Amino acid sequence: MRLVPHYRNVSLESGSLMHEMLELHYNLVKAQELPLGEIIREAVDHGRRLTIEQDLSPSDSESMVKAYQEYAMFYKDDQWEPLYVEQKFSKVLYERQDEIDLECCEPEKSCPEHEGLTILLEGKIDLIAHHRVHNQTYIWDHKTTSRASTPVKLSNQFAAYCWATGVNQAILNQIGLQKTLASNEKYKRHMISYSDAALKEWKDNTIWWCNLLDQFLKHQSFPMNWTACTKFGKPCPYLDICQAHPEARQSKISQGFIQVQHDLFEVEND
């Protein structure tokens, strides 16, 4: 339904600010035209200009700027060479042609139950970088966090990125926001690798779920999943809608949400 809550999400906006500074940082590193000190100054100035447009308090935005500065200095002797920054991709995951079943289809025309299906996998990868010493390429995803955690391989995001690019190694670039920890405890790069067999299993599994979603769309029936409401450590922002009386849900939507467009993959002029 493309609904976004009215209230500001500090963690999401803070993470977006960090991503914007890192995008400029790694683009400048890739260009190899400026020393690190000037790169950091450019990224900090960019971040501070962006806070004018965001709904972040001065203290929240300055905390992110400080975290970026510490991160950049901690990894000042990096041996990573940026190849692609904020790289978009779109790749066919699955394609099924129309079928004609003479018992239920019109002549030379498939019915809804036998029409074809194309599943596109689309995304935007924070960074793809090559290690100069180890001669290996990794997919990166930047994550700001308030507490240390170790990623698991069963991640749709990492598996999708690896399958789409053919790069079987990924890095969770963890940027800790804790104020009491040392830099070596806050900034961690967790490495994950996938076998071809694991990525094939992920692909087959994803196709199964997409086919199920296709049936939901055809029948305009969307069963609730009551086990997902608190999976991420805090209630889902849509919880108030789902647990309201069915006849009161539209009122909840009108009071607490606005409708937005998702423009990540808008048509671009060639």
Explained architecture:
39% of the residues lie in helices and 23% in strands. The model has no long low-confidence stretch (mean pLDDT 89). Helix 1 runs parallel beside helix 3 and helix 4 crosses helix 6 (196-219). The protein has a domain at 81-221. It starts with a strand and ends in an 11-residue tail after the last strand. It has eight helices and seven strands. With 270 residues, the chain is an alpha+beta fold. A hairpin with a 4-residue loop joins strand 3 (117-131) and strand 4.
- Strand order within the widest sheet? 2-3-4-5-6
Could you tell me the strand content as a percent range?
15-25%
Query: Biggest sheet, in brief?
Result: 5 strands, mixed
Structural class, by secondary structure, is alpha+beta
Distance between the termini: 30 Å
Return the average pLDDT rounded to an integer: 89
Give me the strand/helix succession: EHHHEEEHEHEHHHE
DSSP strand tally: 7
> Using only CA atoms, what is the Rg?
22 Å
Unreliable stretches: none
Shape: globular
Structure annotation, total helices: 8
Fraction in helix: 25-40%
